[in-house]
Amino acid sequence: MSRLVAAIAATLVLVAASFTAYTILSRGGNWTSSKNQGLIVVVSFPNLIDDIRQIVCSDDTVYSLAPPGVDPHSYQLTLRDYELLRRASIVVSTGHAPFETALAEKASSDKLIVIPDILREHGGRILVNPDTGKLNLHIPIYNPYNYRIFIGYLGERLAELRPSCAEVYRSNVAKVLERLNNITTVAPQLNVTAVGSTPSIQYAVEWLGIHVVKLLVREHGVGTSTEDLAEVKRLFEAGKAKLAVVMVLENGKPATPADEKLAELAEEYGIPILRVPAPYMAGSVLDKLEAVVAEARNLKG
Question: Which of 12-16, 136-140, 258-262 shows the lowest mean pLDDT across its residues?
Answer without folding.
Answer: 12-16
